[in-house]
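Open question from group meeting: does this chain pack into something compact, or does most of it stay loose? Before anyone orders reagents, we agreed to write out a predicted structure and look at it together. Recording both the input and the output here so the notebook holds the full record.
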Amino acid sequence: MAIVWLVLGIALVGAELLTLDLVLVMIGVAALAAGGAALLGAGLTVQLLVLAGVSTVGLLGVRPTVKRHLTTGPDLAQGSDRLVGRPATVVETVSETAGQVRLDGELWRARPYAGLADIPAGTAVSVAAITGVTLFVYPHQELT
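Structure tokens returned:
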């Protein structure tokens, strides 16, 4: 009977590669545990109890935790949002009507953030927000 559990366990773990849902692998591990019980001389009833117990623990206890760790990660800004907070240098005075900054070697249209005064060329700034292709910036000393 141990061979049957071993084959079933390996087949289920292998089938998990097709679904990637972590259900078959939990049942496969339970089948391997039942095979271990069979090797130790346990009867069919005990083997089935081991299968049920390990499956339950795996599906209700282990699977949700593993799945959460595999599907969530750090909250990474994507697209233009990744520019917020980045430092830049004013290349052309930034006013309500004109201005450019250099950010990572690229020129960007810029405007002062939240009605701040004009920002002269050469000033170190940070990006507060972005709308379309326009960066809204503020001088570093404005942070304090």
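Observations to bring back to the group:
The mean pLDDT is 90.
The CA atoms of residues 125 and 142 lie 9 Å apart.
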